[in-house]
Amino acid sequence: MPSFILPLLLTARQYRFGGDTDALTSHLIDTPRIAWETLGTDLLDTAPGTLVDALTDGEHWASTDLNLVTPDGSPAQRMAPSESTASDDWISWSYVLRADAIEVIPVAVGATSGRPVPWTTPPHHRFADDPTAWRAKPSPPAARLPQAPAPAARPQRANRV
Questions:
Q1: Do residues 4 and 56 touch, judged by C-beta distance below 8 A?
Q2: Residues 101/117, Cβ–Cβ less than 8 Å
């Protein structure tokens, strides 16, 4: 949910990853063996203690990998979400880390795009968890310039013989 994830990501990028979006992205994608079960306060390790306490109510927990057991006992494979798995209620929210913002996509309501949260947003900002608040706003229709009226037709003269 955005009220939980966005403060972690905004703070982690600013403090632990020194503003480096690529480093944060790499950590989030490359670190788990399969997928994340939970993102924890270890993402906030270098943030000021007062900020961490304000964001977490003083609680601390570690990020954990998803621990899957397959029916046949074979090693679990890394999970890659797709439009079909997302539409099967496997994913409710998607967070796309961009150079200038985090795009929050409410996948559970069928959205394929969302609203951006600039990296400059204070982590203690109150974020809505209502999926409809995160739907991308449609672009305003392109303005139509008035067309010049067609020139009036001149009456044709009859030819006299």
A1: no
A2: yes
- Residue range 58-109, pLDDT digits in tens: 999 888 877 777 788 887 777 666 666 555 566 788 899 999 999 999 988 8
Q: What share of the chain is helix, strand, coil (3-state, %, to 5)?
A: 30, 10, 55
How many angstroms separate the first and last alpha carbons of the chain?
Answer: 88
Reduced to 3 states, what is the DSSP secondary structure of residue 50? helix
- d(CA 43, CA 130) in angstroms, rounded, equals 25
- DSSP character for 8? H
| Domains in the chain: boundaries | 2-67+79-134
DSSP category for residue 107: G
pTM: 0.76
Distance CA 158, CA 53 (A): 93
- CA 2 from chain centre, in angstroms, equals 9
Question: Cα separation of 112 and 108, whole Å?
Answer: 10
